[in-house]
Amino acid sequence: MAEPTRTPLSPRDDEPAVQSLVPSDGLKPHLPGVEPERQLNDWGRSERVEGVLDATVAEFFYRYWFRVEVEGIENVPAAGGALLVSNHSGALPPDAAMIAKAIKEEHAHPRPVNITVEHFFKGYPGFSMLIPKIGCVAAHPANVHRLLYDEEQLVLVFPEGRKGTEKLYKDRYRLRRFGRGGFVEAAMRARTPIVPACVVGAEEAAPVFAQLGLFKRLTGLLYFPITPTFPHFGLLGMLGYLPAKFRIRFLEPIEFEDEGMHEDKALVQTVAHEIRGRIQENLWDMLARRRSVWFG
Amino acid sequence: MTMDARRILVTGLSTYWGGRLAQALEAFPEVEAVVGVDNEEPQVELERTEYVKVGAQHALLRRVVEAAEIDTVVDTRLVTDSARTSPGKAHENNVIGTMNILAACSGADSPVRKVVFKSSTHFYGCEQDDPAFFEETMGRPHPPRTPIERDIVEAEASVNEFAEKHPEVDVTILRFSNVLGPDVRTSHTALFSLPVVPMILGFDPRYQFVHEDDVVHALEHAAGHPVPGVFNVAGDGVLALTEVAGLLGKQYVPMLPPWGTGLAAAALRRVGIKIPPEMLAQLRFGRGVDNRRFKATGFRYQHTTRETVLKLGEHLRLHPVVRGAQEPYRYEREVEEFLRWSPHVRNAREKSTAGLSREQLVELQRLLGSFADTAGITKGGDGEPDRLAAAEQRAAEAERAAEEAMDQARRAERAATEAGERASREAARLAEETAERAAREARFAAERTPRVGSPVEHYDDLAAEEVIALLASLERDDLQTLRDYERRHANRVRVLSAIDSVLARGETRV
Hints:
The complex is a heterodimer of chains A (296) and B (510). Chain A has 296 residues and is of the alpha/beta class. Chain A contains 10 helices and 9 strands. Chains A and B meet through α3, α4 and α5 of A and α6, β12, α10 and α17 of B.
């Protein structure tokens, strides 16, 4: 006998006849609900692991080691999706964690930040297990779109990507190329604002003096840097940051309200270029005001 | 666009899905005919599905399709688990078979108006640079790596080609994620039946499952609604494998090394743990799909991924206790044909009454008794049904007692496995034996003492589904009075309409 809970075989008369052509906007209400019994969300993020790290390692670095100071936190929207765009540096970059922590600590409505990372991490044993648990998401356009548009969350991207973390100490605070502007396209498609962010201090906290190509190939890592503590203190040496003073400045959001802007490649490139310029300008400004690397 | 006449062909009737789907379609009154084809005989009992022993020979199939004026073809044959058969056979079935079935549906005067193709999310593969949620439009980022994935991609390509050439036919492709459930056997249920859940060291893949019942309902939904296109079918929620192990109450063990995984898997195959290549990729990178498009067509899942895993966990704990309780069904051609076609088979209804389980019979008697009480009607003077009722009541009680005892045994056994102690396992076995003895004694007692005054349970206690389940076996008069009673009291629309439809059916039969 047919179970009564199943959907009837024939469409009822009061149903709209053809629902088969699903509008792309119509899928948002069909997002799966949250199961409160779970410890992980659908991206693999674990509140428990994140909470423990947040209360220990992140807390220590944020408050006592880097003594982070934040400007313009009000530029981060309290609700809705937003794309944070920042400069990037350090072998195991401390900037991502500090930006996330800053929003948790300073913002009127603390929100979780989804940090986009290279696909590499998903394929490397160990990282693959840990990285999603602490709120990192592979930098796939579809992932960013789902987070921004459907789930209306904060996403942090580093358009410089690997080129930013690879660069040596002598090139500090000189922004690399901003990818192919994919981040602007994602924000335009999701019609969410971009909030540029500038981080000063990360370059001195984890200076990279050289890159060893041979060891990179041997270990299969993204890169194999020489830092003050790596590789001679082992993998934990990656966390051996110098106590530089951190400053994070969030700039005014750039809004994209019109539909279909992302299809205009020229516009995408222009906007990407402009955002890069603004971040670079602000970095120079912050560096000029800084009297000491260690005390600000 | 409702097609009132539905004549459905199910391919792969002997597969788990073919059998389940045919059983499900039989229950819909608007489905006129269900024809099942396969090389092998069906594995489940079917009431009105007609089985034709024909594989994927398109000339024969076409004759069947045309003769039976099939309007809907549901293809459930696809092999999505390479542990089931050899790669050669899988290819033959998945690629060549699909082509032949589609050939049987084409032709200028073909009656087929709808094709539903059961596919798999193995279509997407598992790679390092996958998105976290595959959407139907995304396609594969890389060429397929394993033979099964290659087959699925090729099969879907030929279905797409068919859809392009035949715009008048509704073609639906459903990509199902990994299926779990108490009945279905897949490489994943086998993996989770192991004492521990094996993992690749350093990886915690994301997994999405769909419950076996949801699979059948999804196929039904696609067969009954105009939903052309490709759809992912997967339960809500994506779990990490460690989470799955936790829900199953098992320990996870990273027994596969991150490098040389294939070699280790080959070694494990020697000791009986089969991990097919497509599953190995999933154990490393995992996979999530976006299931919203199918939900937008009006389909509702009954289980989330988490609930599906929990259901499997319950079954795995129960399985050692209830194993072998049911005899497997065997298809006997002569019997099936007699039941379907002989003029001496009096009444299809009677079959279903006889098919009532003991539990349902007891419910029925209780229903009648309580109903007579509340409505103030005294049943006919003969004591026969009364005594029967009492006996059944006793039997039910006994069975309940037995169940409780079994439950205790089960709990004890669970405790035993947890403690891992020999002594308590012994105790569990003892408890199980006692339980069985108790059950036997209870049954015996039930047979011996037929006449005991029983407390009459209220009709109002029954849920709507339970009432509806009993209607088919009620007499006409009883139905009438029941209808009056229902209207006066609970007045549940679903129950009332169900009674009406049973009454209406009865009229046409007389």
